[in-house]
Design a protein that fits this description.
325 residues, 5-stranded parallel beta sheet, Diaminopimelate Epimerase, Chain A, domain 1, inorganic pyrophosphatase (n-terminal core), 12 helices, alpha/beta
Length: 325
Amino acid sequence: MTNWIEATNLLMSARSIVIVTHPRPDGDAIGSMLGLGNQIRTMGKEVICAVDEGVPAYLQFLPGAENVVSSLDAGQWDLCITTDVADETRAGQVGEYALAHAAAVINIDHHPTNPLFGDVPLVYPQAVSAAEVAFDWWEYLGVHYDRDVALPLLTGIVTDSQGFRTSSTSARTLEIAMHLMRRGASLTEVTARALESKTSSEFELWKRTLPGASLDGQVITAVVTLADAQAVGMDDTTDAGLVQFLINVEDARVACVFKERAGGQVGLSLRAKRGYDVAGVAVAFGGGGHIQAAGATINGTLADVMSRVIPLLHSAASKGRLDIV
């Protein structure tokens, strides 16, 4: 659903704007946020971009990343824009505050499970990323923008399409990427920094995690414990892109990395080969995402969560079709 006229009217009438995205942000979350914020600032408006915990280190090369705040505890805004937020409950603490202190809300997203919250939802499930929706908005307005907008938007598209490899990638996706490159965005830079680069801590985490990875039939899994994350100097438990590495194993159809977190929670990073669906697994546990890439956070111990999730992974693997091309 897209309503460019109503969204544009809200944007043009607003003087103060806050833009928020989901916690543990990925390239699309930060890329779409900065691709919006950097352009809106050129319109002479007051803009604050916020996300819980701030911008991850690997995305701090993006223009405007240094201006993103990690908390909100004061302020009122004419407009709140959420981007890449599948529903209001996933906007984090900054999102909760922003949504409660804004006169109007525009919801920019591409998740098919989005409940169309906000005053104006710009939700386009066919888009490969929220950054693509932001791109379409600027195209609708016919605005001029440069590298400071193009580079974040290209980052969102490249990361959410996993380097143009997901089933949602279309000829138009490549056309948009080409357009952004003409505006100064470097595909080489985005690919190197946002997809391929690994810190030494992430390398050490993979060393600790891979020996315990398991391929059981068509399902491949790995576990990142809180102790391992802390041992390599990570404050938060991440798989550092490991799930994408695992799904490339030839016999695997479905991949999952279980990430133990403080407070008795376990995060899931899910991937599937084309023709297989892991979104249903995520949704079953209150999560969300896309057919080939999804995630969730579940209360419980590692053993308990794994016992509940693994049967659904096997079910997902058994229902897929490899003849889809």
